[in-house]
Design a protein that fits this description.
This protein has helices at 4-16, 35-48, 65-68, 77-81, 87-90, 104-109, 115-130, 164-180, 202-220, 244-260; strands at residues 22-28, 53-57, 92-93, 98-102, 134-138, 155-161, 192-199, 225-231. The protein has 292 residues and is of the alpha/beta class. It has one domain (20-260): Rossmann fold (3-Layer(aba) Sandwich), CATH 3.40.50. An 8-stranded mixed β-sheet has the order 3-4-2-5-1-6-7-8, sandwiched between helices. Helix 9 links the parallel strand 7 (192-199) and strand 8. Helix 2 (35-48) packs across helix 10 (244-260) and helix 8 (164-180) packs parallel to helix 9 (202-220). The radius of gyration is 18 Å and the shape is globular.
């Protein structure tokens, strides 16, 4: 019998060789919207497909990526940046096939990094991406600001609840992200993906996305890309790394980045669930998931 998993992994690796490492930051517009679950969903699904994945975890505590993957560490990426530890000693291997780098202390120190530390951070990222095909940063925002590490990623995935407060926070985060990339030409703008959680229905999530996308397009001149929907009323199963529906969202994103590889021009979402019916930009035809 043919080994389809190995065939798939070989195919993905062959596709990847044409493209650079994908670096994606995942950030929750407000607390508890499922950002870590979706970040881990993307990491786990990519790893299951045979890609080499590294997760940089800026959080601490039971809900962090490190804890969910059953890992512990006294070291942090900040120590590698400060030359107090080697990067290999900070990097952890999980039983899920994903490498994890704790970086909560680095995220907290991000506003005070000096020139030498910034250069060391760049060196660390080069080393981390040398043997990584997908680099995921699970962001811990500081006053709504992305860390120096998260700002170095090629893409930003923002998870917002379907509420006015969370959508407003998402817009502010996206505005800072776009403004921070202002020197880049429009053709090189870093894509922003948006997922909506705590929605009463898929229709509500689609409407929330359409509203945010409209404001961003009008005021920032940049269109968003649909990531998916986590409907309200469900929680991540106890002791699970992430929920099934967050895994699905992660799988869709991984497929978009490493399989479809279609043009991602502003205003065109490449999700396999994009609406063919002429709906608002980037809306899905009907994607449903649960809060994780």
């Amino acid at each position: 019998m043919a080994d389809f998993m190995n065939d798939q992994a070989s195919g993905l690796r062959a596709l990847f060789r044409r493209f650079p490492t994908q670096r994606v930051s995942f950030a929750g517009a407000t607390a508890g919207v499922g950002s870590t679950s979706i970040a881990l969903g993307a990491a786990l699904e990519a790893a299951r497909s045979g890609l080499r994945v590294t997760v940089i975890d800026e959080h601490q505590g039971a809900g962090s990526a490190v804890a969910r993957l059953g890992l512990t560490s006294r070291l942090d990426l900040l120590q590698a940046v400060n030359r107090d530890a080697t990067l290999s000693s900070v990097r952890l291997a999980s039983q899920h096939g994903v490498s994890v780098v704790p970086a909560a202390r680095l995220a907290a120190a991000s506003p005070q990094l000096n020139r030498l530390q910034s250069e060391a951070l760049d060196e660390a990222l080069i080393e981390l991406t040398r043997d990584t095909e997908l680099l995921v940063v699970d962001c811990a925002l500081d006053g709504g600001q992305l860390s120096a590490l998260a700002r170095r990623c090629d893409r930003l995935a923002v998870i917002t609840a379907a509420s006015g407060v969370s959508i407003t926070a998402a817009y502010a985060l996206i505005k800072r992200h776009v403004a921070g990339n202002a020197p880049l030409p429009a053709s090189s703008a870093r894509p922003v993906h948006v997922g909506v959680s705590r929605a009463r229905s898929v229709a509500d999530a689609r409407q929330a996305f359409a509203s945010l996308n409209g404001v961003v397009s009008e005021h920032l001149g940049s269109a968003l890309h649909w990531l998916g929907c986590l409907t309200s009323g469900f929680e991540r199963p106890p002791f699970a790394v992430t929920g099934d529906d967050a895994l699905k969202m992660g799988r869709d994103l991984a497929e978009k980045l490493f399989v479809a590889r279609e043009s991602e021009k502003p205003g065109i979402s490449t999700s396999i669930h994009d609406s063919p019916s002429g709906g608002p930009i980037g809306q899905p035809e009907g994607v449903s998931a649960r809060v994780a």
